[in-house]
Write a structure and sequence with these properties.
The structure holds two protein chains of two kinds.
Chain A: H1 2-23, H2 25-45, E1 51-59, E2 62-68, H3 70-93, H4 100-119, H5 123-141, H6 147-177, H7 182-189, H8 194-212, H9 220-227, H10 230-240, H11 242-255, H12 257-263, H13 272-292, H14 297-318, H15 321-351, H16 369-383, H17 389-403, H18 407-432, H19 448-466, H20 469-482, E3 489-490, E4 493-494, E5 501-502, H21 503-523, E6 528-529, H22 555-561, H23 568-590, H24 595-616
Antiparallel strand pairs in A: 1-2, 3-4, 4-5
Helix pairs in contact in A: 1-2, 1-4, 2-3, 3-4, 3-10, 3-15, 3-19, 4-5, 5-6, 5-10, 6-8, 6-9, 8-11, 9-10, 9-14, 10-15, 11-12, 11-14, 13-14, 13-18, 14-15, 14-18, 15-16, 15-17, 15-19, 15-20, 16-18, 16-19, 17-18, 17-19
Chain B: H1 2-32, H2 42-51, E1 56-57, H3 60-79, H4 94-114, H5 118-149, H6 154-160, H7 173-187, H8 198-201, H9 212-236, H10 243-263, H11 269-276, H12 279-295
Helix pairs in contact in B: 1-9, 1-10, 2-9, 3-4, 3-9, 4-5, 5-7, 5-11, 5-12, 7-9, 7-12, 9-10
Chain lengths: ~625, ~300
């Protein structure tokens, strides 16, 4: 019962917010925050519930079912949490822009759609909610108009191709088994032939691959992420593309099942999950290196979103209990730190009046220290520095890859991290470090409604980095429900016969070492604080505003790798698009508008028919 | 209590060895140049002196970054077996070592970044590019070692090499060779001292450091020397039964490195990357493939 009420609140809340906006914008803001917190509260309250209920008996003769278990709960709580924080962040970000009522409506609708996806217990409602999410995301991506419209178009076209693939899969399942309830398909599909399972998996993989931006289906993402409004970028990157990951988990381990998805499929090397793992590895390496070449802060992060999804796909597809835990945990972690980083860019964009070009910012740490700390924490999470949650999930994935004898996959995953360091440092340095340009002298720290979500997310990253046992316990339960072995967890990490991870020890070691050095540092002669202009230049004076230290940060390296790291897939798609456009252009010429031509067409067609009849006697 | 004692002894020994290497470094170079050179104890005197000199601060991150980087290096020492001493051996193994190494370079990079000096920006950009350059062969080597011994624990890797069954003389030979080829880059000595090139960019990231900042920077450098060489000895030369043997092995590796430093000119950054991504990477990749073939 609670699930229906939850979705009812989510959807009616969205429309009520829109209507309230017509009365008063203040009321609307309060109501939007209220609705999303209520949703968060209800979902938190549902922790540990297992239920499956029919909520609307007949839709085209099929029962629509809502379902909750640990698996959907984890995704639901992440959706609600990131949703709430991004709404709070939006309060000042979107203020004063046009069509704000519409913006809030769509934000809440996207969240409601995603909640519907993770709570649906049959494929019909899954598909309906999936489409609600896709379309409202399209409207939000193209909210800014201009180039955003093209980005949204690209997104929705690829998304529709994915949806059609899924629809074919759903119809095929229905014609074969006569039901679309997830819990009823699962036992039946286990006895299907492996080629049929492969067919279903590939169809669904296309849909989820587009949404999850797995190479080679990723090309919509960099445009969409950079053009969308920043709070929505946070949702888009933090949660929405992870619906693809949810889909992969659902189809591989809930519907088809571990045995069907991993063991009985294909030959030794060309197994479905093995190929998917390699796609994941490619998705890690290439986008991470392309990210290094970006000069737009949001575009840089967008390419990293693709790269990080690669870790999740790799973890999920590799299919050991450790890698599944790592993959799911990385989903959760990525939601926290990537949402945080997009919000940081949003805050900087808000204060600098829309500047997010990394070559023209710099030195903002002096003006926006809290935003900088958040950016640092988020960046550390993205790299996977120990003490942040990103480290733990990556450690789980690396460890299982090495010990299960997949050294090349492990290498791909590891090198991705080092590529991340370079681009993330550039991100930090070019925005916050280096010299503060004269024009940003009077910038203020981000407003409180932006600081709050930023700080909450930073805390979560640290908390789950030092005490990873809390989320891992939930994730372990998901893994065992899929039929994997249970992990041996403690609050501070993981215990197993080979390789122990103890985050507490690492945390205290670093803390104590830092304190000792700090004391030593304080004991030394006191240092003199000086301004940024007062720096060493071999005896000569560095003129103000003459140099910008952040421009072309890795120039020698760019020159080396630029020819090799381009988005070849996107270029390939562009060629196809061009060819199709040319073809349609030619086809259009048939319709000249001149009646004489049409008469000739009719005559020609009739002649052909007559010739066929006389000559060949076809009918 | 024993644990605490072990931690303290490890840190003191490691810093002692690292600083001794700094002194020895200058001495050997001087002798190769036909000079007499400073006394070996000179770095210690320098560090003490620097603590009593005034330094300049550019801001909070300028201080904290340096502290964090040194803290990372000290913690890292606790994870690396030093001839039987390894206080934190049960906290995550080689993968954690790999990641705590990040503290060092990130800390310096953040600290330098706030220094707002063009030389620093160039230096850090070069340093990060260089580290990406040697990380490619280095990770291939590490993955090969971990796959060969089927463990991620560095202590077990050392134990498996007891009785002169060194990795260097096993199927990991090619990986070992590649490791030796990238060692100068990891130690940032010539031909790879691009990031700190004193004559071009005034020591790069260190240019704004003075007084106690420079002292901490030197200590950090000493630890880095220790870590890179100790890791080499542990992974490929069988570690050591006790700290003394371990130290002798380190000394040999270090001296070889200094000889290379003394006679080579400096690479440009793109030359360095081209070198690192060519021969060492090819060797490391062949090494990894041969290990996989043997183990399958």
């Amino acid at each position: 019962m609670a699930l229906q009420i939850l979705l009812l609140i989510a959807f009616t809340g969205a429309f009520l917010t829109y209507l309230l906006g017509k009365i008063s914008s203040k009321l609307r803001n309060i109501f939007a925050v209220f609705i999303s917190t209520v949703l968060l509260g209800i979902i938190a309250f549902l922790y540990g519930n297992f239920s499956e209920k029919i909520f609307y008996l007949e839709f085209l003769g099929l029962p629509l079912i809502l379902r909750i278990d640990m698996f959907s709960w984890l995704f639901a709580i992440s959706i609600a949490a990131i949703g709430t924080l991004s709404i709070i962040f939006s309060l000042s970000y979107i203020e004063g822009k046009e069509r704000t009522d519409f913006y809030y409506l769509m934000m809440l609708l996207v969240n409601a759609g995603m909640l519907g996806i993770v709570l649906s217990g049959d494929l019909v409602s899954f598909y309906i909610f999936w489409e609600i999410m896709s379309w409202s995301a399209f409207l939000l991506i193209s909210y800014n108009r201009g180039p955003a419209l093209a980005a949204g178009m690209k997104y929705i076209i690829m998304s529709i191709i994915g949806s059609i693939a899924m629809l074919i899969g759903v119809l095929s399942i229905y014609t074969n088994y006569g039901t679309l309830t997830i819990s009823e398909i699962a036992p039946q599909i286990a006895s299907a032939s492996s080629s049929y399972i492969l067919f279903i998996l590939i169809l669904f993989a296309i849909c989820f691959g587009v949404k999850g931006a797995v190479v080679p289906l990723h090309t919509w993402l960099p445009d969409a992420h950079s053009e969308a409004p920043s709070p929505f970028s946070a949702v888009l990157s933090g949660i929405l593309i992870k619906m693809g990951v949810y889909g992969f988990l659902l189809i591989m381990y809930v519907i088809v099942g571990v045995k069907g998805a991993l063991i009985n499929l294909g030959s030794e090397i060309l197994r479905f999950n093995y190929i998917l793992a390699w796609l994941g590895a490619i998705t890690i390496v290439i986008p991470t290196f392309i990210a290094m070449l970006q000069n737009d802060a949001k575009r840089l992060l967008a390419w990293h979103s693709i790269g990080q999804v690669g870790y999740m796909i790799l973890g999920i597809a590799f299919g050991t209990s450790l890698s599944i835990a790592g993959g799911i945990f990385h989903f959760f972690n990525h939601a926290t730190f990537k949402a945080l980083l997009f919000m940081v860019v949003g805050a900087v964009e808000y204060r600098t009046k829309g500047i997010r070009d990394l070559n023209s910012l710099g030195g903002l740490i002096k003006k926006m220290p809290i935003t900088f700390i958040a950016a640092l924490v988020g960046a550390c999470g993205l790299i996977g520095v120990p003490l942040t949650n990103g480290f733990v999930s990556k450690w789980l994935i690396y460890k299982t890859l090495i010990l299960e004898g997949a050294p090349f996959l492990a290498f791909a995953a590891l090198i991705g991290t080092w590529g991340t360091i370079l681009s993330v440092y550039k991100f930090l340095h070019n925005m916050f470090l280096g010299q503060l340009p004269e024009k940003y002298k009077d910038i203020k720290e981000a407003p409180f409604s932006m600081q709050l979500p930023i700080l909450v997310l930073s805390l979560v990253i640290f908390l789950f980095g030092i005490l990873p046992g809390i989320p891992l316990r939930i994730i372990n339960e998901i893994g065992t429900s899929f039929g994997f072995e249970s992990l041996n967890l403690t609050i501070w990490g993981i215990v197993s016969e080979i390789g122990i991870l103890n985050m507490m020890n690492i945390f205290f070691a670093i803390l104590i070492a830092s304190i000792i050095i700090w004391i030593l540092f304080r004991k030394g002669e006191k240092s003199i604080p000086i301004s940024q202009e007062d720096s060493y230049a071999a005896g000569s004076y560095i003129p103000k505003e003459k140099y910008h230290y952040t421009v072309e940060f890795y120039n020698p390296f760019y020159k080396m790798i630029k020819p090799y790291f381009r988005d070849f897939v996107d270029e390939f798609y562009s060629i196809i698009v061009k060819a199709v456009r040319n073809l349609s252009e030619r086809v259009r010429k048939i319709y000249s508008g001149d009646l004489g031509y049409y008469v000739i067409y009719i005559l020609l067609f009739s002649t052909i028919l007559i010739i066929l009849k006389m000559g060949l006697g076809l009918w | 209590m024993v644990k605490v004692l072990e931690i303290i002894i490890t840190v003191i020994l490691a810093s002692g060895v690292g600083i001794f290497f700094l002194g020895l470094f200058r001495k050997i170079i001087a002798r190769i140049h036909w000079r007499y050179g400073p006394p070996i104890i000179q770095p210690v005197l320098d560090i003490i002196k620097l603590f009593y000199q005034k330094g300049f601060s550019h801001g909070v991150i300028f201080d904290l970054g340096l502290i964090l980087s040194l803290a990372g290096s000290i913690v890292l020492v606790l994870f690396i077996p030093f001839g039987g001493l390894c206080p934190l051996k049960t906290s995550g193994g080689l993968l954690v070592i790999l990641y705590i190494m990040l503290f060092k370079s990130l800390g310096i990079a953040l600290s330098g970044g706030e220094g707002a000096n063009p030389n620093i920006s160039i230096g850090i950009s070069r340093k990060l590019i260089l580290s990406l350059g040697y990380e490619v062969p280095f990770l291939l080597i590490l993955v090969a070692v971990m796959t060969y011994y089927k463990t991620i624990s560095i202590v077990e890797i050392v134990n498996a090499q007891r009785n002169f069954q060194w990795s260097l003389f096993s199927p990991l030979f090619l990986s070992g060779l590649a490791y030796f080829m990238i060692l100068p880059a990891m130690l940032e000595i010539r031909p790879f001292d691009i990031a700190s090139a004193p004559q071009e960019i005034s020591s790069g990231p260190a240019v704004e450091y003075g007084g106690k900042y420079l002292a901490l920077f030197h200590i950090e450098h000493a630890f880095s020397l220790f870590i890179s060489i100790a890791l080499f000895v542990d992974l490929l030369l069988g570690g050591g039964a006790n700290p003394l043997f371990f130290f002798i092995k380190m000394l040999i590796v270090f001296t070889l490195g200094v000889f290379i430093h003394a006679v080579f000119p400096r690479f440009r950054i793109e030359q360095a990357i081209r070198y690192l991504w060519k021969w060492p990477t090819i060797l490391a990749l062949t090494g990894l493939i041969s290990v996989v073939v043997i183990k399958l």
